[in-house]
Design goal:
The structure holds 2 protein chains of 2 kinds. By secondary structure, chain A is mostly helical. In chain A, 77% of the residues lie in helices and 0% in strands. Chain A has 2 domains: 186 residues, no CATH class; 217 residues, no CATH class. In chain A, α3 runs antiparallel to α4 and α16 runs antiparallel to α17. Chain A is globular and about 65 Å long. The two termini of chain A are 28 Å apart. By secondary structure, chain B is mainly alpha-helical. Chain B has one domain. Chain B is built from 17 helices and 2 strands. In chain B, strands 1-2 form a two-stranded antiparallel ribbon. Chain B is globular and about 65 Å long. Chain B starts with 5 loop residues before the first helix and ends with a helix. Classes of the chains: A mainly alpha, B mainly alpha. At the A-B interface, α13, α16, α17 and α19 of A face α5 and α6 of B.
């Protein structure tokens, strides 16, 4: 028994292949997808219940007996992140029902998808570094397989191998860093690490541990210069998986890093906050600049994710309540925005069969539902006020300006302006009126536009009423800061 | 008369109506324009009522709605006082007139681009158009920097889409260029606003701005907000985007873009020249010099144009700079004159740009070399063109003269107090205004007088729905020209 959402995810991850085998017998190709979606929905429901409990001040009971005794700890930070992860999982899973219909072994795909969500949930709710690492590996392994899922084509396989090599090197580095921390303190529990290292004068080993842990998580979070796997993997993966990878998997790297930074490594804060400030600017600038020259829609979105990771790093650099609030809020908002954008790209690719932006001209006339939702996501990504991206970028800017890092804030705003250059290109191609749109284009099926529109409506809702989630993000940030 | 939520209504009613207009357009086509215009007439009358309340009670109307209150307070605050109300009212009036004008104009343009059966484009156009008055009035009425930023950005969306959907010639490329220039400008404004808030202790309120006066950060706040708006005002060196955007936009949207450019003078007065007067002092002379250079440069650029739309576009560069010279003087009269001139200029410029649209529609050409003698065929249009030119060249009895009068009195007041250079600038500026007469009346002569070429024998007068709204704008300008107190009652109470 782990926590309830995790148990449900495991249960469905194991049973989905069985259902898939049954589905083949009775010739219902969509059955395993529907079953998996139901499982994720159920798990999301329990996760949401847990979030409400933690917000109400109740500490939900974590397992008290068995092998994993007390290695989970549900605070607001963990349960909020969990709801985002499972929530985006629902959208990706509904979308996949139609998108992956023709793939062979789709029940395996769903099992891996649920496994990846389970891995992420474990990472953010773990109470010690060992549990975190186990679930971390679970998330990584499933994501390699999902990237290379279309294994009859060379591109996904190549991208998968590249991802595997870089990310497993990262995991090994991470494990080494964790072992250093254990060597220094004799515990891996976050609370124990915070007491042992939080107020002590940092020794040289702590710097080395920081380097290793930062590199380990940084590969996953695609912080420049550890980002090179991302554009290949995110563009070669099936679109719902790209939405998951860009929307929440890379951010989980940041969330895990936040846990360690603000407990074991808090004594080095002045040091790493400066490093993060510099890396934030480099990451956002490089991501946005490279996105400017892409012609492949999914590669463009992948590079834009690197840019957004840069914005999120700025909040960590500030390291204050406002900064962490901004980072957590931007993780939620980016999950919604990038989730919508990648799912829209998926719907377009599903009809068109091409990822090339130039082939998509005039699609707004044939796929208006997708085009409008895509435009909403794009304007939110640019940071136009009234949509959710604006509020979190503003929070990030205020947080860095408060701690005398205004140059990082200025970089955020200039980058937002630059990024308008490539984001708008997508809108412009979609609404172009000169050429006749491709014959293949017609409105996406309802199981595709429905999850997209749910996300798009959330983008608008959280843009107009930011306080619905702002409060929770702030309390999540306070939960992290109160760990030391 | 007390109307509940009068300021919120002027913002919210068009916002709620916009999606409905888009949907109705699918059924009723171009007639949806009358619904959109009726909504704008309603908001204009709301602002008129608010204006009469302020006139009689001399008290500002303010409304505040909280948006987010977690890490820092974000508010939607609206304030209608002696400065913001006349600006908001005139801009809304121009939007209303242009909306009625556009019903017929857009029918022509949509038929040309998308075919006569296309009804949904009418809905799309009028729905997007409704965002302009929301944004413009919002910027004027905001009592909060973040709300102001929001409305500045809101205006960008319809400008971008309308240019991309309905503009002329190289519209796609120009639309992107326009968006990025303005996005950078808005970004600079936002940086300035947030820097100010860090110094005021997290408050984005405009009232709190004066508390940072005297601190070193105030200089940077002034600089960033100023440069951001100088881009939007197309001051010399930052003007590259404007002739393109004006030239390729729809005629009446170009008028709205000119209004956005001019709005800079209001924002600079509201945010910098009054609350941060002491810190803004150092920018006074550079602004005046920049304004003067832009005036002369814009004027000469205008004289060189053959294209009837680019002509008035380039003249916007020059005319917007007049206000800059007035503001740079930093005297009460100069500031009031700068805002008055902005109001007067957009009235005249809207008339002239819309006339350019009429000419393009009726003759099918933008080249002035091919026109001539059109006054016989289109007497109303010619009369409007002359009235518009009179406003710009400050010929009585229209508002241009009164505005320039107030402004130059202010500039000379500043000049006599400050020194020789401050005195020399207005003298040169007055001579520069003579250029205006040349570049507004010479094209009128080229277009409307002289022999009629044989190709233009069949040209007809524009329909009443296009000329009447413009006559109303001219009448308002005439009212301000004869009774300048209508505007100055408000402005002099503010400064």
């Amino acid at each position: 028994m782990l926590t309830l959402p995790l148990d449900l995810l495991f249960l469905f991850a194991i049973t989905t292949p069985l259902i898939g085998w049954l589905a083949q017998k009775v010739d219902l190709p969509r059955l395993s997808g529907v079953y998996a979606t139901l499982g994720i929905l159920l798990s999301a429901f329990t996760a949401f219940q847990l979030l409400l409990q933690t917000l109400g001040g109740v500490v939900p009971p974590t397992p008290t007996s068995g092998l994993f005794n007390a290695y989970f700890d549900l605070d607001i930070f963990g349960s909020f992140a969990m709801v985002i992860q499972i929530g985006l999982g629902i959208a990706a899973s509904i979308f996949s029902i139609q998108y992956m219909r023709s793939e062979s072994g789709s029940s395996l795909y769903y099992a891996l998808l649920i496994g990846m969500i389970g891995g992420m949930v474990g990472v953010v709710t773990a109470a010690d570094l060992f549990t975190l690492f186990v679930f971390w590996e679970m998330m990584c392994l499933t994501s390699y397989l999902l990237v290379a899922f279309k294994n009859e084509e060379p591109e996904p396989v190549e991208a998968g191998i590249k991802y595997l090599l870089m990310s497993s090197a990262g995991s090994a580095t991470l494990l080494f860093g964790i072992s250093l921390l254990y060597g220094m303190t004799g515990t891996l529990n976050f609370g124990g690490l915070a007491t042992a290292l939080g107020h002590a004068t940092p020794g040289p080993w702590l710097y080395i541990a920081l380097l290793f842990i930062f590199t380990g998580f940084g590969v996953k979070a695609a912080i420049v210069p550890l980002h090179t796997w991302l554009p290949d993997a995110h563009s070669a993966a099936p679109s719902p998986i790209s939405a998951m990878l860009s929307g929440i998997v890379i951010e989980t790297g940041l969330l895990a890093m936040v846990r360690v930074l603000f407990t074991a490594l808090i004594s080095l804060q002045t040091y790493w906050s400066m490093v993060f400030a510099v890396l934030a600017v480099i990451t956002m600038t490089l991501g946005n600049m490279t996105a400017l020259v892409q012609d492949d829609l999914k590669r463009m979105l992948a590079y834009s994710s690197i840019g957004h990771i840069g914005y999120m790093l700025a909040g960590l650099a500030a390291g204050t309540v406002v900064g962490l609030t901004g980072t957590i809020l931007h993780i939620l908002n980016h999950a919604l925005m990038k989730g919508t954008a990648f799912l829209c790209a998926g719907a377009i690719i599903y009809r068109l069969g091409s990822r090339n932006l130039a082939d998509m001209s005039g699609l707004a006339r044939r796929m208006p539902k997708i085009a409008v939702a895509f435009s909403i996501a794009i304007f939110a990504l640019i940071g136009l006020p009234g949509l959710n991206g604006f509020v979190s970028k503003l929070t990030l800017f205020v947080s860095v300006a408060d701690v005398n890092l205004a140059w990082v804030g200025i970089a955020i705003i200039l980058n937002s302006a630059i990024s308008a250059g490539y984001y708008l290109r997508i809108v412009r191609v979609m609404i172009e009126t000169e050429s006749e749109p491709s014959e293949n284009l017609r409105e996406a099926p309802v199981s595709m536009w429905f999850p997209i529109w749910i996300l798009a409506i959330l983008i608008i809702t959280f843009g107009i009423w930011p306080d619905l989630v702002f409060n929770i993000a702030e309390r999540a940030a306070l939960a992290i800061l109160s760990m030391t | 008369m007390e109307i509940p939520f009068v300021l919120l209504q002027t913002i919210l009613v068009p916002a709620v109506a916009a999606p409905l207009v888009a949907l109705m357009g699918k059924r009723i086509g171009k007639y949806v324009g009358w619904i959109a215009s009726a909504i704008l007439i309603y908001t204009t009358s709301l602002l008129l009522i608010a204006g009469s309340t302020i006139w009689t009670t001399a008290l500002p109307i303010s409304e505040t709605y909280t948006w987010s209150a977690v890490s820092f307070t974000l508010e939607f605050g609206f304030i209608a006082d002696n400065l913001s109300l006349p600006v908001a009212l005139i801009m809304n009036l121009i939007c209303t007139a242009a909306s009625i004008y556009s019903i017929h104009y857009m029918k022509h343009r949509i038929d040309e681009l998308y075919g006569e059966e296309n009804k949904s484009m009418h809905g799309l156009y009028h729905a997007l158009y409704l965002l302009f008055p929301i944004g413009l009035v919002g910027v004027a009425l905001s009592s909060n920097l973040i709300a102001m930023y929001l409305f500045i950005e809101l205006v960008l969306i319809p400008s971008y889409f309308l240019l991309d959907f309905f503009g002329y010639r190289e519209r796609h490329r120009v639309a992107t260029m326009y968006f990025i220039w303005n996005q950078v400008a808005a970004g600079l404004f936002l940086i300035g606003a947030i820097l100010a808030s860090t110094a005021t202790g997290g408050s984005f309120s405009i009232n709190a701005l004066s508390t940072i006066s005297g601190q070193p950060i105030a200089f940077w706040v002034c600089l960033l907000i100023l440069v951001g708006w100088l881009i939007k005002m197309a001051a010399f060196g930052l003007h590259v985007w404007l002739p393109y955007a004006h030239g390729e936009h729809l005629a009446h949207i170009a008028a709205i873009i000119a209004t956005i450019a001019g709005l800079g003078s209001y924002v600079i007065v509201r945010l910098l020249a009054v609350p941060l007067a002491a810190d803004f002092q150092v920018f006074g002379l550079p602004i005046m010099v920049l304004g003067l250079i832009t005036m002369v440069y814009g004027g000469l650029l205008t004289l060189a144009q053959d294209d009837v739309k680019r002509l008035y576009a380039c003249s916007t560069i020059s005319q917007t700079a007049y206000s800059l010279v007035g503001i740079g003087s930093l005297t009460a009269m100069g500031l009031a004159g700068g805002v008055f001139y902005f109001v007067s200029h957009i009235l005249g410029k809207s008339i002239l740009l819309c006339i350019a649209g009429v000419l393009m529609m009726q003759t099918g050409s933008r080249d002035m070399n091919k026109m001539g003698g059109l006054a016989k065929k289109m007497p109303f249009t010619a009369a409007l063109a002359i009235l518009g030119s009179m406003i710009l060249s400050a010929i009585p009895p229209l508002s241009g003269l009164q505005a320039e009068w107030v402004m130059f009195v202010g500039i000379f007041q500043g000049g006599t107090l400050q020194g020789a250079l401050q005195f020399a600038i207005p003298v040169i500026a007055i001579f520069a205004t003579f250029l205006t007469a040349a570049y507004t009346f010479w094209p009128v002569k080229r277009i409307f007088f002289g022999p009629l070429s044989s190709e233009l024998e069949d040209v007809k007068e524009a329909p009443k729905s296009m000329t009447l709204p413009l006559f109303i704008l001219a009448l308002v300008s005439l009212l301000f020209g004869i009774y300048p107190d209508v505007v100055m009652h408000f402005l002099s109470a503010f400064f």
